[in-house]
Amino acid sequence: MSRASYEAGLENVLDDIQAVTESSGDAPVGFNVTYHVPVRDFGATFEFAWTPILGYKSNVESILIYEVSTVLAAINTTLAIGTDADPDAYVDEIALANVAADATDRIATRPVNLIDIPNAGLPVHLTCARTAGTGIASLAITVRYFL
């Protein structure tokens, strides 16, 4: 594929995204991207980072815990989404509930403490902090992008 062909295709995709976003009236329609956090030990503090797509505002649509292989005993375990400097800048700490093995739990859908993530191209961090939790599971963070 030539560079010109690639750029033309990319321009068409961006035009389509803009058309969908602009046709939404008052609500930003945009598109969703789901970031998957592979199996993690909730018995330890961990972090996962992604870089938002440049040129778009974004916010967190939902956070899902899945592939629970060991019971998630979420004693004093929280998730937050923010920056290096402010770990809960975009989604305040969410206290996790217990999740049984082989279960799935949508822990946040359109969090009420939602703040738009700026399109500065800086990494966004999901931080899991704990003082007494246990469990093995994966996470999926769905982010809505819009103009």
CATH class: Mainly Beta
Would you identify the CATH architecture? Sandwich
Strand order of the largest sheet: 1-8-3-6
Radius of gyration in whole Å, from Cα?
Answer: 17 Å
What is the count of helical runs? Answer: 1
Helix content bin: 10-25%
Element order: H for helix, E for strand: HEEEEEEEE
Low-confidence stretches: 16-24
Strand content: over 45%
Give the overall average pLDDT: 75
Report the sheet with the most strands, covering strand number, pairing sense and barrel closure: 4 strands, antiparallel
Would you mind describing this structure in some detail?
With 147 residues, the chain is mainly beta. The protein has a single domain, classed as Sandwich (Jelly Rolls). It is built from one helix and eight strands. Strand 4 and strand 5 form a beta hairpin.
Keywords:
147 residues; mainly beta; four-stranded antiparallel beta sheet; 1 helix; 8 strands; 47% strand; globular
Task: Explain briefly what this protein structure is.
The protein is mainly beta and 147 residues long. The protein has one helix at 3-22, and strands spanning 31-41, 46-50, 57-73, 77-82, 91-95, 105-109, 124-130, 134-146.
How is the topology of this model organized?
Elements: H1 3-22, E1 31-41, E2 46-50, E3 57-73, E4 77-82, E5 91-95, E6 105-109, E7 124-130, E8 134-146
